[in-house]
Design brief:
Length: 241
């Protein structure tokens, strides 16, 4: 079975980061609702940029949807990502809890890291098994050029949120770096941050689903991975260590 399973759950899909999974869209809005307007976003440049959290989908309806999954399907990762930033869903913690109660084996949240300074967001993520947090820049100028955040989000806040998450989160914290021409020369700075945060894994990818720029070649990506590994980072590039 592949495709939409329920209103907010679809799959299974193959992820090079975590393997087979079902996706959950806790936003379910078009155009996207996000705290960033990233240059490489697969949903394009249109959308609503905000930092205000609100309930996007109904938690009880979601609980019914999870119950539609078979026992075998519940053994697959349930990944919260979707049409925007999942931590903007104010009831994200409740959605994760209902998935666990329904018997889902593993929950994953993919976040752009923008709201990790918020205690309520970190509380919502406390019961998640894997959090994949984005980091694309090593300074404010680069951050604003690539991720185009909401005006109230600064690079220093993003780093502070990642540090707080690293110190309090009991699950597997992983970083995701989108490498492109705009930041490939900042690799040492990104590596130093990875060293400090000591994520369980750092995923290194390049833009393949966006028309905003050309993806970096395989040779460049592998050399970048080797440089980060020399700094002690555990790197995966397109699914391979």
């Amino acid at each position: 079975m592949q495709g939409e399973v329920t209103k907010s759950i679809y799959g299974p899909v193959a992820s090079w980061r975590i393997g087979e999974c079902f996706n959950v869209d806790p936003i379910c809005r078009s155009p996207k609702v996000c705290s960033y307007g990233c240059t490489y976003c697969k949903f394009g440049s249109s959308g609503f940029v905000t930092i205000k959290r609100s309930d996007m989908i109904d938690a009880e309806e979601f609980s019914d949807e999870v119950s539609c999954l078979t026992v075998e399907q519940k053994r697959i990762h349930l990944r919260f990502s979707g049409s925007g930033e999942p931590t903007l869903a104010r009831n994200l913690g409740d959605l994760v809890s209902k998935a666990k109660i329904a018997g889902v084996r593993s929950t994953v949240v993919v976040t752009n890291s923008s709201l990790l300074t918020n205690l309520d967001v970190r509380e919502d993520l406390r019961g998640v098994d894997i959090v994949i947090a984005k980091l694309d820049a090593c300074d404010e100028k680069e951050f604003r050029a690539i991720d185009r955040p909401h005006p109230d989000i600064t690079y220093s806040k993003v780093l502070a949120g990642l540090r707080s998450m690293r110190s309090s989160f009991k699950g597997s914290l992983r970083l995701q770096i989108m490498l492109m021409e705009e930041n490939r020369h900042s690799l040492e700075g990104l590596g130093e941050i990875c060293q400090e945060l000591s994520p369980d894994v750092t995923y290194l990818s390049t833009q393949t689903r966006s028309s905003s720029g050309e993806p970096l070649g395989r040779k460049i990506m592998l050399e970048a991975a080797r440089r980060l590994e020399r700094l002690g980072c555990k790197i995966w590039v397109e699914g391979k260590r």
